[in-house]
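Next comes this protein:
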Amino acid sequence: MALDFTHDASASSWVASAQQADCDFTIQNLPIGIFDTPTEGRCRGGIAIGDQILDLARLASSDALNGAALVACNVAALSSLNEFMSLGPMPWRALRHEVFKLLHSDASESTRSRVKACLVPMSEARVKMPVDLRNYTDFFTSLYHAENCGRLVRPDQPLTPNFKWMPIAYHGRASSVVISGTPFHRPVGQSRSAGSSHPTFGPCKRLDFELELGFFVGPATQLGQNIPPSKAREHIFGMCLMNDWSARDHQFWEMDPLGPFLGKNFCTTISPWIVTIDALEPYRTASPRQASEPQPLAYLYDEGDQSEGSLDIQLEVAIQTLSHVAQKLSGDAVTRTSFRHQYWTIAQMLAHHTIGGCNMDSGDLLGTGTISGPTQQEAGSLVELTTGGTTQLSLPSTGEQRAFLEDGDTVVLRGWCQKEGLARIGFGECRGKVLPARH
């Protein structure tokens, strides 16, 4: 799509907190999620602006909207976003455009008064799962992550022969996908130590995070229908941060021949605010695939996708230990990278997922796979940052070290887009805390 007035970097909002320099939820962003409040337990849709939530149920009941935007708002105000996602780009855009006008600093005093009555402070709200999640697929699409992990188990041939020919994926467990802020217990399972002839059972000793992004499917498809890369934008609603927690000792023992199971299915955390594909449009960039590398097969190739199918999303992971909490510290950043390094685009991921006829449901979640950059400092997991646990990662604020996560650790993912001539938009936080194993 072409950029429109909602991408204007000079645009400002009358919501003061949306004007702060480091604000994620600017007027150019307008991410959407589901929330409730302790005084009003009904879940409904909301749009984040600064430190406020625009209550879409209240907005739909006001006289601030009409026409297509009002119809879309009524659907977005429901207790999950599945139906809104199913509507497609035109209704999504109609609501975005009108909300932008309502929150713009040029809005009249009467408009501001009506909209202020629809604002809920984030401090008084409880974020919820944005969709009724039925299906979750996780990809493996970072060349650098694949090489880093491959060297740990196949030093002579770290990259599998299929990696540069297809976006590899597996079907994950939708029931254990949780919203940011949800703690989880350290998983238990089987593992086998190096040199041992038999496995042991117990709590995971090599618990890891994985820095990922997730994207949500918009309009559904029928069984047998595929989505080519050129049409993928019409079927992708937006993106969130995602932490695909991993029990590395369990994962490495169980993976052959069918792939991960208990090493992955215990918890996946997503951020609550979905940044729409329209908001991300200015940050598109060329695919990093080099001309000297194998070119995608025809069903994965689209010239437009190759020229602007990647997204320059800046990402960071911080670890906050119990010592940080005791000292009232926010934690230490342990890695920073960008999604622009990802070898396969989200359009190619969706195209590959559907090429065999797999039908997609509105609200389905697809994970991008771990996002790592070209240097070790840009790795998206501890197993890479510590070379399989053979080195320790320093946390300078407390003097602690980590090879893998310990009980009480909180991992915080952050993401944002920012470049010259454009406004900053962000994803907020995706955080989760490790509790001791139940067994």
Q: What stands out?
A: The mean pLDDT is 97.
